[in-house]
Amino acid sequence: MKFPSPQTLQSISELLGAKFIGPADFPVLGINEIHVVEPGDLVFVDHPKYYDKALNSRATVVLINKEVDCPEGKGLIVSDDPFRDFNKLTNHFRPFRQSHQSISDSAKIGQDTVIQPNVFLGNNVEIGENCIIHANVAIYDNCIIGNNVIIHSGAVLGADAFYYQKRTDKFDKLLSGGRVVIEDDVEIGALCTIDKGVSGDTRIRKGTKLDNQVQVGHDTVIGERCLIASQTGIAGCVIIEDEVTLWGQVGVTSAATIGEKAVVLAQTGVAKSLPGGKTYFGSPAEEAREKLKQMANVKRIPDILNKLEK
């Protein structure tokens, strides 16, 4: 998430009421999570396990809960609660804005696009040309929809990330300031839910087709010309490369990558990254031919035991 205008290390630290380490005029251009940071971004870290990863990332500024040596070319902001202060930045630069009508005045709708009754379009939504948005679709603030996109009834684009910090007596929500971006020629089935990024984009690339009742988590990127069947659940920060097929009721764990042209058969549980160009089945997922062979051998166990007893 980029700020509307460049900030400085000092201005951000003053906004948070925290100490900074580095030049006061050091530029800060936005905030992002560790897996999508770019130069100019601020990233937060609140566990020693991830200090090195954050300090050595592409981020220019690190919001951290311990005073450490500042790497060359970076700035630090030392906070007693980086999670809380990251939320402060999201809330300051991209606050929730209440809507007072079904289609916001700031929404942009392309030529020959059809918007059916009872559609909700939030602030700053952009929809391209020749799209069909069916009844009762909700598209939250800042979502971007390309050309020739079809979205079926009941779909929700841009809901918050499922991302919480466990406290002693409750769960604290990490505020979502990212977007959903749908590229050209995508079709989204009825009752699909696509969560926006925490600070970056959840993206579905050109030509991909989603069946009904598919869940896509925050900051996930789905490649071009993928097919995703009904009741598939994809967690946050997943990368699905081009021309992947996920059949019904597949579940994909957070931060996994599924390689180009992979096929994942129905009811498979993807617990780790999978190389492309292969077919997978089972939970945890394995190459389908090997998994089916294992299942066939399991069925032979009673006969084997009977023969041993004789």
TrEMBL record:
Gene Ontology CC annotations of this record: membrane
Listed EC numbers: 2.3.1.191
Residue ranges crossing the lipid bilayer per the database entry: none
Domain of life per record: Bacteria
Residues of the UDP-3-O-[3-hydroxymyristoyl] glucosamine N-acyltransferase non-repeat region domain: 25-91
A biological process from GO: lipid A biosynthetic process
NCBIfam families in UniProt: PRK00892.1
Keyword Hydrolase: no
Any one Gene Ontology molecular-function term assigned to this protein's record: N-acyltransferase activity
Gene3D superfamilies given in the database record: Hexapeptide repeat proteins, MurE/MurF, N-terminal domain
UniProt name for this protein: UDP-3-O-(3-hydroxymyristoyl)glucosamine N-acyltransferase
